[in-house]
Design goal:
single chain, alpha+beta, 5-stranded mixed β-sheet, 9 helices, 5 strands
Length: about 200
Amino acid sequence: MLQSTRRLLILATLASLALAGCSKPGGAGQASTADMTMGDPAAKVKMVEYASATCPHCARFNNDVFPQFKKKYIDTGKVHYTFREFLTPPNQVAAAAFLMARCAGKDKYFPAVDAVFHNQQEMAQTQDYRGVLLRIAQSMGMTEQAFDACVSDEAALKALNDRVEKAVRDEKINATPTFELNGKKVKEGEITMAELDAAVAEASK
């Protein structure tokens, strides 16, 4: 049931986000399927965050806590950070946001996701999901044609859907954000800097 439901939601992305562009599926060829990471891969502490582009709790973490965490732990080589995409309602918007960020290129992926989180409230209030995502895509150097092709890429959409299904099946992820340190789930929901300090200290032992 979960698999078929998520596939229907992915197909909804094609209908709602690419309709205005009327572009054919495929053709973007830019959306990587690799994990998106920051920091030193050799760091003793490995942190994984599962988050959705449409999750308000994820946006608050990104906007209010993550900059301090990044400066203290990722930029100093103490933590290797992996961001894993998840889908929450409206699922098709979250999917389109992540595909757009991947199509922007690996070096622009995190700035694009950051921009989505900072503009999440505007999308929710105006319901102009496509307009906001297109504006972000263009700020990352993408054309409207490239954006439409990107969010219409069925292969990339399937790959994203498969990653989400794997997270649900193998990691038992059912809430966003969810944080894991060295393979151990430490928090579901919003997390404070103090909680992260304690979790990193424990994982560093």
